[in-house]
Amino acid sequence: EVYFKNLSKQKQKEVMEKNGNNHKLRVCVATCNRADYSKLAPIMFGIKAEPQFFELDVVVLGSHLIDDYGNTYRMIEQDDFDIHTRLHTIVRGEDEAAMVESVGLALVKLPDVLNRLKPDIMIVHGDRFDALALATSAALMNIRILHIEGGEVSGTIDDSIRHAITKLAHYHVCCTRSAEQHLIAMCEDHDRILLAGCPSYDKLLSAKNKDYMSIIRMWLGEDVKTRDYIVALQHPVTTDIKHSIKMFELTLDALISFNKRTLVLFPNVDAGDKEMVRVMRKKGIEHHPNFRAVKHVPFDQFIQLVAHAGCMIGNSSCGVREVGAFGTPVINLGTRQTGRETGENVLHVRDADTQDKILHALQLQFGKQYPCSKIYGDGNAVPRILKFLKSIDLKEPLQKKFCFPPVKDNISQDIDHILETQSALAVDLGGTNLRVAIVSMKGEIVKKYTQLNPKTYEDRLELILKMCVEAASEAVNVNCRILGVGISTGGRVNPREGIVLHSTKLIQEWSSVDLRTPISDALHLPVWVDNDGNCAALAERKFGHGKGVENFVTLITGTGIGGGIVHQHELIHGSSFCAAELGHIVVSLDGPECLCGSQGCIEAYASGIALQREAKKLHDDDLLLVEGMSMKKEDIVSAAHLIQAAKLGNAKAESILRTAGTALGLGVVNILHTVNPSLVILSGVLANHYVNAVKDVINQQALSSVKTVDVVVSNLADPALLGAASLVLDYTTRRIY
């Protein structure tokens, strides 16, 4: 790490020497509307804070300067930025031709401004038609372009504009790993791509602590409560204006019927926006007691409004991107955001062609609270972007180079940029110890923390949060980007809600416990929770013998007996989340009593607790110790003593282990006859002692058609932590919508 830091400093020093020690990078930031300013403002503040490296010029154009859209240039002035130039570039009109004419007008006016400013680099955001004019002008005038949020996928003409700007831009700052991969597939140079996250997240992730009730009351009225109002923001779809107007009518009708206080924001400047405003006025939205219609809300206040809303509805990218940081429910209407990566808080209504569909979506989503999502950023985008800007060598050739296939590995930055490994926080909640680890995508445990598991619910949850916060902070120092938190715990778990329904007797006060919400709220990370047996199976599927195997079963042989079943590459949970309770398969009607209250379970014969019980009986009868063994009075008799005695020739100990192995083998035979896996993996501290006995029972008792099953011992050192990490890593790298 020290080597990387020194190398980075050396390169920055070399870049400064090449550019001239006294030369500051002259950066022009051009903003066109309220939405792009929310992304550009954090970068502008960062540039302004480092005058020894940068000179900032601000150009304002587009809808910022139109009264109908709130004259939003004023918020730039309120942020204490000097606006160098104001360009009126919007041609009034209600069709596609007006957008084309606006682009043409901007192209006519921009060359004079850029000739006067002579910036070293221009920062352009997003996918608006105004941004295309900016990028075209800068490219033709040999000005380097840094494009923010390239590589993303959405619906309508925005996709085409965004990708066109990508081809004009010299440098790229993207927000997600998928966007980075799209840029690479578009033949952009790896060394000129920075995966930084969305700049607006730098402000979003610290926003919830501010005083928000005064903001809510100012915009929605004194009697409004948190989570009891809706924010609506819908824009015209320029490739199908008539349908988008109809969809907006249906949305307003559904909101009127739903009868909740609603803040409606005016749409963007696009073909069809005037017609949408007319629809609002026709339905009396501006005078309806349940509605507040506004042209613009300052971004800081808008953050607070969506963070504490009961729901957001519409087709704005803000809904699928920024709102996920708060876990606020979102209803995404139509096709305008098709293809965007979204968190689980977003419900898509692709074909919003009836009022009932939209109303039903409101009933499903309103008032829910989802885990906070950090798909689009982790709050550290601006420092990465400033570091990236400082590394730009102005003496490098201006002409772009394209990297045609075959492309390089999916690493977007060279060694002098930030090298970060996608990782998970894994939590293993055992009967004795509580462990937290940073686990990389390759299954490497980068750092591990262990504490005794507290006896009470409050102390346990407090310790989990403390250890997770400590690990998340340390992740920055070891260059790991945490994608989420995975928790492995004993008992019956509802993984959909992140709730421990019933725990084992080994973990006290651990039933009906919501683990997801408090941890997600504290860390601003998505959280997954599952049973420890299921986690062991996931660990094998991702890192162990189960990799690439379609159907297999994992059996944990430790303090208790548990496991997980993978069928057709997917984990089976069952209708009441009770699948794969393999330790409680009954192999004898009159066997020993199990902790579950039944008799003759595998766990009553073959678990560490069962072996300890039998060892204690032998010890009490002075039948345990043989030559070569010794025990002190204070020593607690354990399963290890029984195994040692058997190895030294104690016939009774051998008989107990043989019975335990037979019971486990019979359970495996029942599993083979039920789900017919091609592989059985024995995991845990007792696996090596049982594997041969299990194979013998299969050969003696199983049907011939299943005798060919492979039975192996797990080679994973820490399946509980690796399985908890797999909950995160599998989900975040194969998200399908």
Automatic annotation (TrEMBL):
Binding-site positions, Zn(2+): 584, 594, 596, 601
Intracellular or extracellular location(s): Cytoplasm, Cytosol
Stretches assigned to coiled coil: none
Keywords attached to this entry: Allosteric enzyme, ATP-binding, Cytoplasm, Hydrolase, Kinase, Metal-binding, Multifunctional enzyme, Nucleotide-binding, Phosphoprotein, Transferase, Zinc
Reactions it catalyzes: UDP-N-acetyl-alpha-D-glucosamine + H2O = aldehydo-N-acetyl-D-mannosamine + UDP + H(+); an N-acyl-D-mannosamine + ATP = an N-acyl-D-mannosamine 6-phosphate + ADP + H(+)
Active site per database record: 532
InterPro entries, per the entry: ATPase_NBD, ROK, UDP-GlcNAc_Epase, UDP_GlcNAc_Epimerase_2_dom
Residues involved in an N-acyl-D-mannosamine binding: 492, 504, 532, 581, 584, 603
Enzyme Commission number(s): 2.7.1.60, 3.2.1.183
NCBIfam families: NeuC_NnaA
Family the entry assigns: In the C-terminal section; belongs to the ROK (NagC/XylR) family. In the N-terminal section; belongs to the UDP-N-acetylglucosamine 2-epimerase family.
Name of the protein this chain belongs to: Bifunctional UDP-N-acetylglucosamine 2-epimerase/N-acetylmannosamine kinase
Source species: Tachuris rubrigastra
